[in-house]
Design goal:
mainly beta, 557 residues, five-stranded antiparallel β-sheet, six-stranded antiparallel β-sheet, 43 strands, elongated
């Protein structure tokens, strides 16, 4: 009997319900494959950028990309230094300020016009201007004057903040330490005056933070103190979202010179750590302490609940290690995290949990490069794209002076604003250096690339194939696309059978299928509930859509 399957690459990974209740096209276990447009595709391996090994002994812990007038730029941070990639000399240039930074546990960063800002929470925020060879302290940062009529730029330049990010044409800081008064304000949000001038090294051309000077719009407020300290913040449409572990508060520009910013509690969900939130399509995707969710500022959707909640948390992710990154090119959200599971070489394993928001499905990638004892896990992800948080200063030229929210009326084309598509790419960063994601068709022989599902009741595909019948699998006709190189796209297809919905699959039979040389795989094993696994074992591109089964129906119970 000939049975045709529907597209098998649409639904993706589902781990929460019993396998026999899953719809056809759902898979209970996957590794290093992606689901997109009805296909299952092997995830390409990252390609090493030659010469990008971190400078000894300054191992990389953070990475950011931005675009200036000359093109894409990359900076990585070590514990106490910052390095900028020089593609012409194929080397990392030390762009640390005059003195090394105090050792910190993290960096956070953002493109600021044609420059970039890095902050580590233990030193004043740093800025690298276009064409400059060193980071410098952010001009005007922490300038709280004892006498507003005679502001002193050196009064409190050593103020610290846990996180600093742009909002409209303001800068906003949270979890503040004011050195002058030796006081820490973990629930304080502090905003600068608007930035309306060109981006130069002159302090007067950078926003003022002097909230004691009534001539500026700078100010501060205490937010959600009952929920613990502020952890991170990110713009969402016209508002800024301020996160604790347990809540998110909206901060919105009022246009009122007295209040400047308004605040209101938005949702009773928070994030697990800094970097655990990212933006796509005017929603925030967040990893909380015990859930993964999206929200638009009011409505919350729990992404994993009932689908892959169990599968995600069975990895034993370590709270505090989450990084969420938006992969715009693939319409994916990537959740990088460390686990308590140890590999054969004594390292804590890391994974990337992938949410495809276009097709609303999930998959899992191994987050390392190299093989054997040379295996190195990823420290940070960075997707090189432009958004309204990375506006060029030319976009703000007047008259009239424009804010980032006004860019839709300036006549900017997509390419002018976002840059050439070839300049946008996802980078993985680890101890080996930079790796461009999704670039290499070779296999990493230490990794598995597969989809698996047991307890498939074929009656879902044809009502004649009821569960009270034994079935003999004779042939499978896989629909696999690969490139024209002989030997590429090899696939190991494993068929097994279970006697009941609770029993383990038995009698597995493996066949190596070569899409270049044949159109079917032959089997001779029998059972009631089908187990199916496809492993990619050859290099090259690999895309699988569906398959046809030739099944003999034998007898009833």
């Amino acid at each position: 009997m000939f049975i045709q399957s529907p597209p098998l690459g649409k639904i993706g990974l589902i781990t929460d319900p019993p396998e026999h209740t899953l719809p056809v096209g759902a898979w209970s276990s996957v590794a290093n494959v992606k689901f997109n447009d009805g296909y299952v595709a092997r995830a390409k391996e990252p390609l090493f950028v030659p010469g990008s090994e971190p400078v000894v002994p300054d191992d990389a812990i953070w990475l950011d990309q931005w675009i200036d007038s000359t093109g894409p730029q990359v900076v990585y941070g070590s514990v106490d230094k910052l390095y900028k990639w020089d593609p012409d000399l194929v080397q990392w240039d030390d762009v640390t300020r005059v003195a090394p930074y105090n050792p910190g546990a993290y960096w956070q960063s953002f493109g600021w016009g044609t420059s970039v800002v890095f902050n580590n929470g233990v030193n004043p925020p740093q800025i690298l201007y276009e064409g400059a060879f060193q980071f410098v302290d952010l001009p005007n940062w922490g300038m709280i004057s004892p006498d507003p009529a005679n502001p002193d730029p050196t009064f409190d330049t050593q103020a610290l903040c846990a996180v600093l990010r742009p909002y409209r044409n303001f800068l906003v800081a949270i979890d503040i330490t004011e050195q002058a008064s030796n006081s820490e304000h973990s629930s304080r949000v502090w905003w600068s005056s608007p930035a309306t001038e060109t981006n130069s090294e002159l302090p007067g051309d950078n926003p003022s933070w002097d909230y004691a000077d009534l001539g500026t719009l700078s100010g501060f407020n205490t937010v959600a103190a009952e929920d613990g300290k502020l952890i991170d913040l990110l713009q969402l449409g016209g508002v800024m979202m301020l996160y604790t572990n347990f809540s998110a508060t909206q901060m919105q520009f009022t246009g009122d010179s007295v209040t400047v910013m308004g605040f209101s509690r938005a949702i009773d969900y928070g994030i697990a750590n800094i970097h655990a939130v990212a933006l796509h399509d005017n929603v925030h995707t967040c990893v909380g302490i015990d859930t993964v969710f999206e929200h638009d500022g009011s409505t919350v959707i729990q992404l994993l609940d009932g689908r892959v909640q169990k599968g995600f948390y069975e990895f034993n992710p370590v709270v505090g290690t989450f990084q969420v990154e938006h992969y715009l090119l693939e319409k994916e959200m990537h959740f990088l995290f460390e686990t308590t599971k140890v590999d054969a070489y004594g390292q804590n394993q890391k994974y990337i949990f992938v949410y495809n928001y276009k097709d609303n499905n999930f998959t899992i990638l191994d987050a390392y490069t190299g093989r054997g004892a040379d295996r190195q896990y990823i420290e940070a992800l960075s997707y090189g794209t432009r958004n309204t948080g990375n506006t060029t200063w030319d976009d703000l030229d007047g008259p009239p002076e424009e804010t980032w929210d006004d860019l839709s009326i300036t006549g900017q084309t997509w390419l002018q604003f976002f840059g050439n598509p070839n300049a946008r790419r996802m980078f993985w960063l680890n101890g080996a250096g930079l790796h461009q994601a999704d670039a290499d068709d070779e296999l990493n022989l230490d990794k598995q690339y597969y989809i698996r599902r047991d307890h498939i009741d074929l009656s879902e595909l044809s009502p004649e194939v009821t569960s009270n019948l034994w079935k003999t699998m004779r042939e499978i006709y896989p629909h696999i696309d690969t490139d024209i190189t002989a030997g590429n796209g090899l696939t190991r297809i494993t068929v097994s059978w279970a006697l009941t919905l609770m029993a383990p699959p038995l009698n597995p039979q493996e066949v190596i299928y070569d899409p270049h040389n044949t159109y079917k795989a032959d089997f001779r094993n029998t059972g009631r509930y089908l187990g199916l696994r496809l492993d990619v074992v050859g290099p090259g591109t690999w895309r699988f859509t569906s398959m046809d089964f030739d099944v003999d129906l034998n007898y009833g119970r």
